[in-house]
Design a protein that fits this description.
Elements: H1 22-34, E1 38-42, H2 46-50, E2 63-65, H3 71-84, E3 91-97, H4 98-103, H5 106-115, E4 120-125, H6 162-167, E5 173-178, H7 182-194, E6 199-204, H8 208-211, H9 218-227, E7 234-237, E8 241-244, H10 254-258, H11 269-292
Parallel strand pairs: 1-2, 1-3, 3-4, 4-6, 5-6
Antiparallel strand pairs: 5-7, 7-8
Helix pairs in contact: 1-7, 3-5
Length: 293
């Protein structure tokens, strides 16, 4: 197989991510796609720590740290300032976790999408508030352990479908991606960069610490999430044109994905069967949407 990923790095050694951090690798690949003429806006999240202590930081591009709920609007302001100065060739990317996207930051994100502000917004999704102690977010899967949903009382609500929420805004481009398919991820960032308006990328980014898994399983977990249809890889343009980018070769039971993560170790067979039923339903729904496009 011939790889097309650029060798040039825009993320320095010395960041402070945990071993096997999906969020760290996701940033590395995204910047390979977007290039040096990029400004990254970071709200409160793991990446405000990963980047390093002031006055140093681990990215070879400018970074603006902002408040938890303001990633989208801060990125919009940066882009507006660049436009006023005639600097039209600089990409502005908001980079936020699931808590800062699905929960705390959704109002600013929805506003930016409604205005179709010309930014790229990335949600790197590790399915909990990992930076502050592994608390439940609305991205936490049903049945998962967190420090605020212990094994005796795990999360009962399903994961919020932020991808479809953003598609409902009818913005030019929405896509999912994961680290097991790096070229797909990079190509989607390049495509997003070429489109004017609001672009939203939902990047699946495992957290070995919060998921109670071995760090060296990070890529395998990403692949299993796709192959079991836990996290489908697709894109949608203008809210109507769906494309499924990665089609699993065979139907892999969700148990193969769940069994490698301690956060699901308490699940009963009934729980697993319910998760499988939900995943199968969502898969068929996505395929129907794609078939109508």
């Amino acid at each position: 197989m011939r790889w097309t990923i650029k060798e040039k790095e825009l993320m320095y050694p010395g960041h402070v991510a945990c071993p096997g951090c999906g969020g760290a690798l996701a940033m590395r690949l995204a910047l390979k796609a977007l290039g040096e003429k990029t400004i990254v806006v970071l709200p409160a999240c793991c990446w405000t720590i990963i980047d390093g202590p002031f006055p140093m930081h681990s990215l070879h591009v400018p970074v603006l740290h902002t408040a938890f709920e303001t990633a989208a609007i801060a990125a919009t302001g940066v882009k507006a300032g660049l436009d006023v100065r005639g600097k039209k060739d600089i990409t502005v990317m908001a980079w936020a976790g699931d808590g800062g996207t699905l929960d705390i930051g959704i109002q600013a994100l929805s506003g930016a999408a409604e205005r179709n502000d010309d930014i790229i917004y990335t949600c790197y999704d590790n399915e909990a508030y990992m930076n502050t102690g592994i608390q439940r977010s609305s991205a936490t899967p049903k049945g998962a352990w967190t420090t605020t949903t212990p094994q005796q009382t795990p999360k009962l609500e399903p994961k919020k479908n932020i991808t479809e929420i953003m598609i409902a805004h009818r913005i030019p481009y929405v896509a999912t991606a994961t680290l097991a398919y790096p070229e797909d991820l990079i190509n989607k960032y390049k495509k997003a960069q070429s489109i004017k308006g609001t672009k939203f990328l939902h990047v699946y980014a495992p957290c070995p610490t919060g998921w109670k898994m071995a760090p060296d399983l990070m890529i395998k977990i990403c692949r299993l999430a796709v192959e079991s249809n836990i996290f489908p890889i697709y894109e949608c343009e203008n809210g109507i044109n769906y494309t499924v980018n990665i089609q699993p070769q065979k139907k892999l039971p969700v148990f193969e994905y769940l069994k490698l993560q301690g956060r699901f170790s308490h699940l009963t067979q009934k729980d697993i069967d319910e998760i499988q039923k939900s995943v199968d339903f969502e898969r068929q729904l996505l395929l129907k949407r794609a078939a109508k496009s």
